[in-house]
Amino acid sequence: MTDLRQRLRTLRPRRSLGTVFAFAVACIAAAAALLVGFLGYDAAARMVRVDQDDVFHGVVSDLHDQVTRQSLSPEDYYSADPDRDGPRDELTRRIRTDVQILGPGGSVQDRANPPLPVVGADREAAAHMEAGHTVYYKTEIEGDRYRVATVALGGGRGAVQVAQQYSDTEDLLTELQQRTVELSAAVIVGAGLAGWWLARRIAGRLVRLTRVAEDVARTGRLETAVPVAGEDEVGRLGRAFDGMLGRLAASEEIQRRLVQDAGHELRTPLTSLQTNVALLDRIDQLPPQARAELIADMKGETRELVNLVNELVELAAGDRGSEEPVEIALGVIAEAAAALARRRTGREIRVEADETVIRARPAAVQRAVSNLLENAAKFDQDGTEPIEVVVAGARVEVRDRGPGIVEADLPRVFDRFYRSDDARSLPGSGLGLAIVQAVALAHGGTAYARNRPGGGAVIGFALGPGVHIAHPRTSIDVRKPSGDRPAPDASTTPARR
Q: Residue 486 pLDDT > 50, yes or no?
């Protein structure tokens, strides 16, 4: 049964947006045309029929008044009246009306043109004693439809038949009905064509956008261009989709590079571990000192692998962490990172901070400051001067008195896994400053690096303007650094990737 339903579902015709739009416009136009046509026809037909009925009943009412006010005979209604001033002329003056005169017993004494039929009810009216007694009925004469009224003269003297043809009116109304239907059909067809044309204009770009999306889903090529222009919602959708594809392509490239670089960086410690594990098979044959060196080497390689994996996970997570932004003094974050670095490195670290309050992810920002401090401590191992942390506005920078950075390496210090020739002998993975850059970018800012006058390096980051809160909320104690101040603008040394 499930397979049958799936097959039936695949057999259903695919309805495009243009078809649906054209069909909807045609349906709306059809409903409107039929409603207007029906109401117009009904109003016209009602008006014509009511007007014709009013005229006919007006003639019959005049005839009734004539025979009830005075005693009239069939001869008074003969058509041969030379003066044209008799009661018959009053009946035919306003509208063409066929009049036929019946004598006593219902005999035809003055025939109408065409002759009107005489039925039993007409004969009874001719013989009726009460003047004004009226009989109504409809009949067909020579293919035409008539309404007939027979009015008794009274006293059994006869009756007057008045007839009005209405088939011409009905034929006219029938023709009007046909014309209304034809006009409605034309309106429906025209609306359908107009809806189809309009749908092509509107949905054409959506169709192209859909094809691009289907092509991307089928081939996986994120570099496909989106051929959608315009300033309306469809154009905005196309540009948003194109931007999304660009970001996905960039993200894919970054992930590819990350995997390649991670594989390269992991290969060295894994190879060393493999070698050391092979030596474990004959560890009993090794002298005690060699055993201790082997175990220490394995511990170091394992620790290096753990640090590398942790940094890779943090870097790959990027700005997708669960930490929510909060308002906090940037100096407090810097002081917390400095306290941690003092315990780890044993170095003197001075913090100079203003009272800037930011809205950011404190753990991420603290990790960025910690990475800067660890980097400074690593390259300034033999330094005697304190490492300085300067917080000014939404900027944080760390200053050391180490060997500085080779000018050729400055543009690449924030690249993932990049390590200069001088740093290859030092512990680390080359991801610390890359994490700093990622944290800065996640907060709408950037990272920067330059050499310090007099020796050493200045490395820091600036958070975006949307992160900084103008009104300070807290005040912190700072230890004044010696050396250069104030902190330079990050824009003077932008980081290049």
A: no
pLDDT digits (tens, 9 = 90+) for 379-401: 877 778 899 999 998 899 999 98
Among 55, 325, 88, 63, smallest CA distance to 169 is for: 55
**Res 84: pLDDT:** 55
Residue 309: partners with Cβ closer than 8 Å, 6 or more residues away: none
DSSP state of 389: E
- Last residue of a domain, which of 172, 187, 216? 172
Do 398 and 373 meet the contact criterion of CB atoms below 8 Å apart?
A: yes
Of 208, 278, 207, 216, nearest in space to 246 by CA: 216
Residue 388: beta bridge partners? 350, 399
> Using CA of residue 58, residue 59, residue 60, residue 65, what is the dihedral sign?
positive
Quote the pLDDT of residue 8.
41
Contact yes or no for 484/450 (Cβ under 8 A): no
Task: Reply yes or no on whether the pLDDT at 222 is more than 80.
Answer: no
For residues 278 and 302, state if they share a domain: yes
| Whether residues 146 and 251 fall in one domain | no
Residue 348 neighbours by CB distance under 10 Å: 14
Length of the chain: 497
Q: Is 386 exposed, middle or buried (0-12, 13-18, 19+ CB in 10 A)?
A: middle
d(CA 432, CA 368): 8
Q: How many domains does the chain have?
A: 3
Round to whole Å and give the CA distance between 173 and 47. Answer: 11
pLDDT score for 283: 74
Domain that holds residue 358: 324-492
Q: How far apart, in whole angstroms, are the C-alpha atoms of residue 481 and residue 171? A: 108
Burial category of 278 from C-beta neighbours within 10 Å (exposed 0-12, middle 13-18, buried 19 and up)? exposed
Report residue 89 as tokens.
């002329």
Instruction: Please tell me whether residue 416 adopts helix, strand or coil conformation.
Output: coil
Q: What is the largest CA-CA distance in the chain?
A: 159
Determine the residue type at 373.
Answer: L
Q: Virtual CA dihedral for 108, 110, 114, 118, nearest 10 degrees?
A: -20
